[in-house]
Every structure is written in C-alpha cells, then in structure tokens.
Design goal:
single chain, globular, 141 residues, two-stranded parallel sheet, two-stranded antiparallel ribbon
C-alpha cells in the first residue's frame, strides 16, 4: 500500500518523516492529522480488547481499513499497536510472538490453534475480544 491511499491532506512528507520511522510523542507535530486521529483511537482501546482496522476507519468516519493499516505500519510503534488487528483474528505477520506476549499479559481472549495450523499460533477470539468503543470512549469526538 502506498501513502497515496491516505487522505490527500494527510500524506506524510518524506522529508519530515522517514519511512517506517517510529514517531514518538515528542515528534507528534510531524504526524499527519489523519494519523494522529487513528493513533488517538488506538490508545483508547482498553487492555485485553481489540479493534479492527475497519472499526477504526468507521469510528473516524474517514478512510478505510487499508488507510488505517498504513498509518499503523508507519506510526503505530508509539501506541498499543497489538490492539489494532485484522478482522479475521490472525496475528500480525512478522510480529506474532511480540503481539502474543501482550495478549497473554492483558488477558485478551484467544482461540488456541489446531495442530494443523501453521506455526500453531492462536488467533484472537474476535467475538469476545472486539471492542466497540463502549462507555470509556463517550468523551471522544
């Protein structure tokens, strides 16, 4: 996916933010507005719960799952990235073990993998782990 899929006003300027740069809060002024909004929602997700890329796009009423995924890939290292997931519950490729540590520490509902599953990695139990924004997010605009 390219940055062209981000809303026009939120495409990163390659001179301001290098690709795959882990933007920390002290560099927040370098973030595109759309990215800031995505990361704010990611920070609202409580421990032990998850939102899908599409859930966040729907919450923001802008963009779609791919745009949210792109933001998370570029800037998500400064937030609880493991709480923003694919809708099918498959763990983030390349980061499965790190994410799994977080899920187990937070008590996130998992479905244990069958012996036939590649790598024997569990999936997220999306029915139980998915967060809809509930009461904790009522002050969010």
């Amino acid at each position: 996916m390219s940055e062209e899929s981000l809303p026009d006003h939120d495409r990163p300027d390659r001179h301001d933010v290098p690709p795959d740069h882990d933007v920390r809060p002290e560099h927040a002024d370098a973030l595109p507005e759309y990215a800031e909004r995505v990361l704010e929602v990611a920070e609202l997700v409580p421990p032990g719960r998850v939102m899908t890329y599409g859930d966040i796009a729907e919450w923001l009423e802008e963009g779609g799952p791919r745009q949210v995924g792109r933001v998370m890939a570029l800037y998500g290292g400064a937030v609880p990235w493991w709480r923003v997931v694919r809708a099918d519950g498959v763990l983030l490729p390349g980061h499965e073990l790190r994410a799994l540590e977080h899920y187990r520490a937070e008590g996130t509902p998992l479905k244990e993998a069958s012996r036939a599953a590649e790598g024997h990695l569990p999936r997220l139990d999306m029915r139980r782990a998915r967060w809809d924004g509930g009461e904790r997010a009522q002050g969010h605009t």
